[in-house]
Design brief:
With 277 residues, this protein is α+β, with helices and mostly antiparallel strands. It contains 8 helices and 10 strands. A hairpin with a 4-residue loop joins strand 9 and strand 10.
Length: 277
C-alpha cells in the first residue's frame, strides 16, 4: 500500500506513513489525508538550502494541498522539525515536495500554473477550487522556479523592443521588453534594471547613451527602441499582454501579474507533472 501511495503521489524523498479519509463538519468537502515524512538524513534550511542540525521537533503538523485523486481532495500532513542555521536562525526544515512558505505541493503548483497559461480564471478556480489571488501567488513561485532552471533570457539577445502597457485603469504601467528574434517577452519592469546596469558598463558608446535615456525616462517610456525591426511584433505582444491583464483581474500584486505574463508570453516551459517511474 505504501508503495502504491508513493507512486500515485509522485514525490521523491518522501515516506508515506498513513492514509485516511477525513469527513468533518469543519471542512467543506471530505479530504484524503496522507501522513508523510521526509526520508532519513540531516534536514536542510529552507532559505540557504544547506544541511543543518536539528533544533527541535517543531510545533505541530503542517499541511500541503496536493493534486486531487479523482473527486477526492488530497492533503499531505507532516510533523516538521526545526533546524538551527547559523546564517538564517531557527527555521522549519525544508521538504522535498513544496517550496518554503507554500501551502501547496510543487506538482499542484505546476498544474495550477499550466492552467493559468491556457484557461480563464473561472476555469482555474472551478477546477482546482482555489481563490484567484492564491493562484497569482502560485504563478509567481512557479515562474521564478522555472526561470531559475532555464538559461538567462539575455544570452544571445541582439534585438529588443521596449514599450509600456497600462495596468489598473491606467494608473500603473508595466515596462515590457520583447525579444524580436525569439518572439517572446524577456522581462517586465523589475528586470529592466538588470539590462540598464549591464548596458551602462558597455564599451559601446551608443549602448551607454541608450542606458542613460532609459534610466532617465524609465517611469514614462512610451516609445520603442528600433534596432532594425518593425513594431509589429511588439504591438502583437502588447495585445496579448492586454488580454492577460484583463484575465488577471483580481490579482492586486503587480509581481503576480508579471508572473502570469511570463507564463503566457515569456516562453517558459511549463509542463504538467509526469509520473516518475
Amino acid at each position: 500500500m505504501d508503495s502504491i501511495c508513493n507512486q500515485l503521489l509522485n514525490v521523491k524523498g518522501m515516506v508515506v506513513e498513513d492514509a485516511r479519509i477525513v469527513d468533518s463538519p469543519l471542512r467543506p468537502v471530505p479530504v484524503l489525508e496522507i501522513r508523510v515524512r521526509p526520508r532519513k538524513g540531516m534536514p536542510r534550511c529552507p532559505r540557504c538550502g544547506r544541511r543543518r542540525h536539528g533544533y527541535d521537533q517543531g510545533g505541530g503538523v503542517r499541511r500541503w494541498r496536493h493534486q486531487d485523486f479523482g473527486c477526492w481532495r488530497v492533503e499531505l500532513v507532516a510533523s516538521m522539525p526545526r533546524v538551527d542555521c547559523p546564517e538564517c536562525g531557527v527555521v522549519v526544515a525544508s521538504v522535498p515536495w513544496a517550496e518554503p512558505g507554500s501551502r501547496f505541493t510543487k506538482d499542484f503548483e505546476a498544474e495550477c500554473a499550466w492552467l493559468m497559461g491556457v484557461a480563464s480564471q473561472e476555469t482555474v478556480g472551478g477546477f482546482l477550487h482555489i481563490a484567484w489571488r492564491t493562484a497569482g501567488d502560485v504563478a509567481r513561485r512557479v515562474a521564478e522556479r522555472v526561470k531559475a532552471s532555464m538559461p538567462s533570457p539575455f544570452d544571445g539577445l541582439t534585438a529588443i523592443g521596449v514599450d509600456e502597457t497600462s495596468h489598473r485603469k491606467g494608473h500603473t504601467y508595466i515596462t515590457v521588453v520583447v525579444d524580436h528574434e525569439r518572439h517572446r517577452v524577456v522581462r517586465a519592469r523589475g528586470e529592466l534594471n538588470h539590462w540598464v546596469s549591464w548596458a551602462s558598463h558597455s564599451r559601446i558608446p551608443e549602448i551607454v547613451e541608450l542606458s542613460k535615456k532609459i534610466r532617465r525616462r524609465r517611469p514614462d517610456i512610451l516609445r520603442t527602441i528600433r534596432l532594425g525591426c518593425s513594431n509589429a511584433r511588439l504591438e502583437a505582444s502588447d495585445n496579448r499582454i492586454k488580454v492577460t491583464i484583463r484575465m488577471a483581474y483580481g490579482l492586486h500584486h503587480v509581481g503576480n501579474l508579471i508572473a502570469l505574463i511570463m507564463l503566457r508570453c515569456g516562453g517558459l516551459d511549463i509542463r504538467l507533472p509526469q509520473p516518475a517511474i
